[in-house]
Amino acid sequence: HGGLRCNFFCRTCKVGGTTVDKKSDAGYCSIFKSAELRTPEEMLAQVKEQVELAKLPGGTTKIQSAVASTGTRDAATSAIINRLLELGKQLRKREARKPPISEADVRVQLERELEAVLNGYSLDDHINPLLGMPSVNIYQDTPTEILHTVLLSVIKYFWGQTVWILDKNHLLNTFQMRLESVNKEGLNSPTLGAEYICRFKGGLISKHFKSLAQVMPYLIYNLVPRSVLDGWTVIGKLVVLLWHTVIENTEDYLVCRTLIF
Question: What residues make up the domain containing 99?
Answer without folding.
Answer: 19-132
